[in-house]
Design a protein that fits this description.
This protein folds into 2 domains: about 160 residues, Medium-chain alcohol dehydrogenases, catalytic domain (Quinone Oxidoreductase, Chain A, domain 1); about 130 residues, 3-Layer(aba) Sandwich (Rossmann fold), CATH 3.40.50. It is built from 11 helices and 15 strands. Helix 5 crosses helix 6. The termini are far apart. Bound molecules: NADP nicotinamide-adenine-dinucleotide phosphate (NAP). NADP nicotinamide-adenine-dinucleotide phosphate (NAP) binds next to helix 2, helix 5, helix 6 and strand 9.
């Protein structure tokens, strides 16, 4: 009897300790070493806990960006370090699950979307951590899949055209890569500002450029843009390759080239009496709020060409690596709450 009491007592004491020390788990895409898409493993990972200035988001969908593949391959390790395990993913849409003590802007149950900064715990998971200045309320006009497609790509387009080039009504903007993640938002943002838009893409994406509102669509497989474009106010270069080097001559004096893929050549800029800027996008909740307004006003809509289950992240990375994705690819993490 004495022995039995001791066992029961020991169990009573041990149970709460066990409950406190075992972290809650979640499904996630985890990488344990840099490499190809095959290093993206679908497995159990500890569910993160928000610090006092953080928010825990129950992720419904995660957006896929070319930078995710660069991180996975180790090309960004000088910024991120090489701490493993690493969960990739910078775009999420979901529901606020828990808020840290200092959070005032959001509460449990809010529907949100976020552009997460570089960290080891990214968005390809059932739960992700965000700061207040990385997120905003999700536009009601779009689904979680659509909302997860927006943050990084549309913020990049906004920071290039609005914050850097400061485009104005009536100006002409040339957008290289108009059918991609960044480019398809850039066309719509420029049109919403009252600009005239010229955009480039390959033959199968000419229809998309027009649907998005481009005034002139150029098929780069049949036409050299510099043969048909001149005197634009702004170039947004969202393509890797020689498009930047070929763009200096199509900009009018005093105009600007904003590149998100390379550094404009100062000697060429000076020669043509134009300005240039190389942009590295960053999370900004104010931009997400502005984008939400444009989405609610039906002036901007995300184009999602593929929705894959979270477990198939490797397939999404194979596609994003082609650099010929139409609109965005999204990973579905959970079904939207009823
Ligand atoms: N600096 C930053 O902060 C930042 C932020 C976001 C992205 N990026 C970089 O910017 C680039 C674009 O990103 P993304 O997310 O838009 O990529 P994406 O979704 O893969 O889109 C690429 C698009 O470029 C088009 N394209 C390819 N070659 C082209 C050419 N020669 N002329 C015109 N269009 C061409 C493709 O259209 P077709 O299929 O019709 O060829 C495709 O729609 C990537 O290199 C990415 O790493 C940088």
């Amino acid at each position: 009897m004495k022995g039995k009491t001791a066992i029961v007592l020991a169990m009573l004491i041990a149970t709460p300790v066990f409950a406190q020390t075992t972290p809650a788990m979640m499904k996630a895409i985890v990488i344990h070493s840099f490499g190809g898409p095959e290093v993206l493993q679908y497995e159990d990972a500890p569910r993160p806990e928000p610090k006092e200035d953080e928010i825990l988001i129950r992720v419904m969908a995660a957006g896929v960006n070319p930078v995710d593949a660069a991180i996975r391959a180790g090309h960004m390790s000088r910024f991120l370090g090489d701490r493993f395990p690493l969960i990739p993913g910078m775009d999420v849409a979901g529901v606020v699950e828990k808020t840290g003590a200092k959070i005032t802007k959001f509460k449990k149950g809010d529907l949100v979307y976020a552009y997460l900064s570089f960290k080891e715990q990214g968005g390809y998971a059932e739960f992700a951590i965000a700061r207040e200045d990385e997120m905003a309320l999700k536009p009601k006009a779009i689904t979680f899949d659509g909302a997860a497609a927006v943050p990084l790509a549309a913020t990049t387009a906004w920071q290039a055209l609005i914050d850097t080039a400061k485009i104005e009504k009536g100006q002409t903007v040339l957008i290289h890569g108009g059918s991609g993640g960044v480019g398809h938002f850039a066309i719509q943002i420029a049109k919403a500002r009252g600009a005239k838009v010229i955009a480039t893409a390959s033959t199968p994406n000419q229809d998309l450029l027009k649907e998005l509102g481009a005034d002139q669509a150029i098929d780069y497989t049949t036409t050299k843009f510099e043969d048909v474009v001149k005197n634009v106010d702004v170039v947004l270069d969202a393509v890797r390759g020689d498009t930047l080097a070929r763009s200096y001559g199509v900009v009018k004096k005093g105009g600007i080239i904003v590149s998100i893929t390379g550094q404009p050549d100062q000697a060429e800029l000076d020669k043509h009496d134009i300005r240039g800027s190389s942009l590295m996008a960053h999370p900004d909740s104010k931009v997400l709020e502005e984008l939400a307004k444009l989405i609610e006003a039906k002036k901007v809509k995300p184009v999602v060409s593929q929705v894959l289950p979270l477990a198939e992240a490797a397939k999404a990375h194979e596609q994003i690596a082609t650099l010929h994705t139409r609109g965005k690819i999204v990973l579905k993490v959970a079904d939207a709450p009823k």
